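Support request from a user on the community tier.

User writes: "When I paste my C-alpha cells into the form, the page sometimes reloads and wipes my input. The last time it worked, I copied everything first. Here is what I submitted, just in case something in the input itself triggers the reload:"
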C-alpha cells in the first residue's frame, strides 16, 4: 500500500530535501545603492581623468614645505684605539658594545670609564654577534655606535646669523671628499666666528666619526648643512644678500685685496686636486686666490678655509 511500505529508504513523498538558503543575497539585491556619484568621481570616466590631472598639476605648483637636510646613516667605530679616541674627542656615540669575556687592558678600561661618564648604553655581546655587526672587521672586542647626523638646511645658517644681528660667514665645500678636511673646516669655522658649513648631498664628505674627531668637538656647536644642489643653494644665498666668494688658484683678486669679507659672505672651497667645479665657479660673484710666496701650487681645503676665515675675522674686528 502506498505510503505504508516497509522497505527501507523508500521515497514516500515528492518533496526534495532541505533547500539551501540564498544567505540574504536576494534581499540585498533589492536594496538601493544610493544616488549615482558625479561623473568626476566615477573611476574611468573622462571627467574623472580630467579632475585627477588638474589635482596633480595643482600639487606640482604648490611649494613643498622646507625641511632640514637629509639625515646621514648610523656608523660604527670599530677597534680599541679608534673607539677610545672617538670617545676622548666627544664623538656623539650612543652605545658601546663590549665583547663577552674580553681581555681587559687599559684601553678597554678607559673606554668603559668614558662611556660610563657620558651615560652611554653599554651592551655586552658575544664575539659572533660583533663579527656580524662589523661584517668581520677586526673589532678587538669594542664597537661604538654613532647615530645619524642631523644636518641643517642651508637657509637656516644665514637665517640664524641675521636673527643674531650678525653678517653671515659661511663656508661651502665643493667636491671635498675627505672627512678629515670637513672636520678641519668645521673647527676653523668655529674658531673664527663662522655660522656653519654647507656640503653637497652627493660625492662629498659627510659628518662621519672621522670628521667629528678632526673637528675636536666643535661640530657639536657648529651646524653643518647638506644641500641637494650646491649651485642652487649658492644662488639662494645670493638672493638673500650674501656675496659668494670662490677660492681658485687662478682667481682674479688676491685675498688681501678682497673687499667683501667684512659683510655677509659665503666662502666656497673646492677640492685640492680639481678645485671648483665649472657650474659652482660660474655662480661665484668673485674668485679669489691666496698668495703663496713659498711656491706651493695649492692648499688642502682645511688649510685654505682657515686662512680666509682668519682674514675675515680680522676685518670684522
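"...and here is what came back when it finally went through:"
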Amino acid at each position: 500500500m502506498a505510503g505504508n511500505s516497509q522497505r527501507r529508504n523508500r521515497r514516500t513523498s515528492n518533496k526534495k530535501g532541505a533547500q539551501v538558503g540564498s544567505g540574504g543575497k536576494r534581499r540585498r539585491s533589492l536594496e538601493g545603492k544610493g544616488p549615482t556619484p558625479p561623473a568626476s568621481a566615477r573611476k574611468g570616466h573622462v571627467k574623472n581623468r580630467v579632475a585627477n590631472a588638474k589635482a596633480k598639476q595643482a600639487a606640482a605648483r604648490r611649494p613643498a614645505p622646507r625641511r632640514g637636510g637629509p639625515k646621514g646613516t648610523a656608523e660604527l667605530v670599530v677597534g680599541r684605539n679608534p673607539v677610545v679616541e672617538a670617545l676622548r674627542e666627544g664623538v656623539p656615540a650612543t652605545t658601546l658594545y663590549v665583547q663577552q669575556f674580553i681581555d681587559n687592558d687599559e684601553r678597554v678600561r678607559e673606554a668603559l670609564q668614558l662611556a660610563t661618564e657620558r651615560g652611554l648604553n653599554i651592551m655586552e655581546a658575544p664575539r659572533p654577534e660583533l663579527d656580524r655587526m662589523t661584517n668581520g672587521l677586526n673589532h678587538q672586542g669594542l664597537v661604538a655606535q654613532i647615530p645619524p647626523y642631523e644636518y641643517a638646511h642651508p637657509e637656516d645658517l644665514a637665517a640664524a646669523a641675521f636673527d643674531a644681528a650678525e653678517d653671515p660667514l659661511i663656508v661651502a665645500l665643493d667636491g671635498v671628499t675627505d672627512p678629515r678636511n670637513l672636520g678641519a673646516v668645521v673647527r676653523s669655522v668655529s674658531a673664527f666666528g663662522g655660522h656653519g658649513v654647507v656640503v653637497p648631498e652627493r660625492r662629498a664628505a659627510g659628518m662621519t666619526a672621522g670628521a667629528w674627531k678632526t673637528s675636536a668637538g666643535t661640530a657639536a656647536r657648529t651646524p653643518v648643512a647638506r644641500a641637494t644642489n650646491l649651485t642652487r643653494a649658492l644662488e639662494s644665498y645670493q638672493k638673500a644678500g650674501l656675496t659668494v666668494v670662490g677660492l681658485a688658484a687662478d682667481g682674479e683678486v688676491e685675498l688681501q685685496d678682497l673687499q667683501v669679507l667684512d659683510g655677509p659672505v659665503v666662502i666656497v672651497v673646492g677640492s685640492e686636486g680639481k678645485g671648483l667645479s665649472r657650474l659652482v665657479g660660474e655662480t661665484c660673484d668673485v674668485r679669489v686666490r691666496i698668495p703663496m710666496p713659498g711656491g706651493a701650487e695649492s692648499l688642502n681645503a682645511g688649510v685654505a678655509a682657515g686662512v680666509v676665515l682668519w682674514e675675515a675675522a680680522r676685518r670684522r674686528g
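Agent notes: The reload is a front-end session timeout and is unrelated to the input. The radius of gyration is 34 Å. The first strand starts at residue 75 and ends at 78. Escalated to web team.
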